[in-house]
Amino acid sequence: MATMYGINSFQTLPTELVSLVVQELLYDRNSLKACASTCRRWRSIALPFLFPRLCLPDSTAFLRAYQFFVLDAPRAGAGIWQSVREMVVDPHSPLSHLASESSTPVWHDRHCMLAFLRAFPRLKALHCSLAVASLISSSLPQSLITTLDIHGWRYDILSFTKLLRAASGTLRTLTLKDIRFPVCHGGKVHTFSPLQVSMLALTELSVICCENLRFFPCVIQMPNVETLRLDSCDMPFTASLPALLKTLVIQREQVPAHTDTDTGKLLSTDNVVIVCHSTDWLRRRLQHTIAQICVQSRIKHLELVLLGIGEIITHPYLTLADHSAFLQEDGLEEWVVRLHKDGLLERLIITAERSRPSFLQELRARFPLLQRLGILDIQTESPSVLAPPCRRYVESFTGTWTWTRSW
């Protein structure tokens, strides 16, 4: 495209049209580089698509980025820093040992960290450790950061509450992963700081592998949350959530057990999404979710996301019956029909990623009653119909860092 339309032709094309065309080349980096090297005008259009994210998987990468974007700016990083919208700082790397040439700690120097983030004025999403997020908490209200993905381990509850309070007015999406607060002697959980936090802007909350995480309504309030994602959580914290959620996403069998009536409550939600990696406990988990987590009369749509099942059945000598007999033996269809007749469920969606057409045909044949009632929807076009897409970073087997749409 850069060859077809030179600088003279570029003058006649609307900028919006050029941006749409370049956006189609999002994963074609060679074409994007060719566009960026044509002229300055093309460079300004292509750069945001070439460098939308910055991933710093270790301390060496951070030091290089600090040198490039802060110490050598604006000569070195001119243009690139305006393009970065999302940043990942690996929370598991030994960042506490980072040091500059003068042996002055860089990472734990709050001013250096703030200077680094100021080099990216259009940054909207930050993935980092809880310690790093606490360092820059004071600057969050003035930044454009609306998505925060924080990881941690046994951190001070007061600092955590201050972080949430600082971001309460601007944060729309919050992910808490591997955050574990200490337990006092005798098994009692530390309570939060008396600093009251009202996170009015928050609409999506994800809680992954967290322990002793209790949001008391007198301390932390999240009245506008629409989407809640749960993955291996062991403590109830639903009292701070609104009376009605739009979507509840649950992954893995371990889910919050509401054993404390003072801090837990049943969730009222229209849409429930169950992410399934294995299927031998599928129906049991559905029943547990309906009975223990949700108000049954509120659920309208239920979705089962079968991750990887399309790859499992690609063996030429195996059929659907070899891998999904549970769908019939466990009486899943009868159970769903009973819920529907009781007025508790309007639609069942089964999302099978990367599945062959033959698999989908056999899957439909397993649910004749649901087919006749018109409440079954089987699709493979997206990771989920009801749940909004979620981006995470993963480390591949080759040691490189890539971006993926995942749970």
- What's the total number of strands? 16
| Poorly predicted spans | 1-10, 91-108, 256-262, 310-318, 391-407
Pairing-aware structural class of the strands and helices?
A: alpha/beta
Question: What is the typical, i.e. mean, pLDDT?
Answer: 72
Distance between the termini: 35 Å
Estimated radius of gyration: 24 Å
Shape: globular
Sheet with the most strands, sense and barrel status: 12 strands, parallel
Helix content: 25-40%
Main β-sheet, spatial strand arrangement: 1-2-3-4-5-7-9-10-11-12-13-14
Number of helices: 15
What fraction of the residues are assigned to beta strands by DSSP?
15-25%
Plain-language structure description:
With 407 residues, this protein is of the alpha/beta class. Among the domains are: 1-50; 268-381, no CATH class. It has helices at 7-10, 15-23, 29-36, 40-50, 59-71, 110-118, 130-135, 157-166, 282-292, 309-312, 320-324, 326-329, 332-341, 357-365, 368-373; strands spanning 53-56, 86-89, 125-129, 147-151, 173-177, 197-198, 204-208, 220-221, 227-231, 245-251, 269-276, 301-306, 347-352, 376-379, 391-395, 401-405. The relative contact order is 0.06. The model is unreliable at 1-10, 91-108, 256-262, 310-318 and 391-407 (pLDDT under 50).
Short structural description:
The protein is 29% helix and 19% strand. It is built from 15 helices and 16 strands.
Descriptive key words:
single chain, 407 residues, alpha/beta, globular, disordered C terminus
Spell out the blueprint of helices and strands.
Elements: H1 7-10, H2 15-23, H3 29-36, H4 40-50, E1 53-56, H5 59-71, E2 86-89, H6 110-118, E3 125-129, H7 130-135, E4 147-151, H8 157-166, E5 173-177, E6 197-198, E7 204-208, E8 220-221, E9 227-231, E10 245-251, E11 269-276, H9 282-292, E12 301-306, H10 309-312, H11 320-324, H12 326-329, H13 332-341, E13 347-352, H14 357-365, H15 368-373, E14 376-379, E15 391-395, E16 401-405
Parallel strand pairs: 1-2, 2-3, 3-4, 4-5, 5-7, 6-8, 7-9, 9-10, 10-11, 11-12, 12-13, 13-14
Antiparallel strand pairs: 15-16
Helix pairs in contact: 3-4
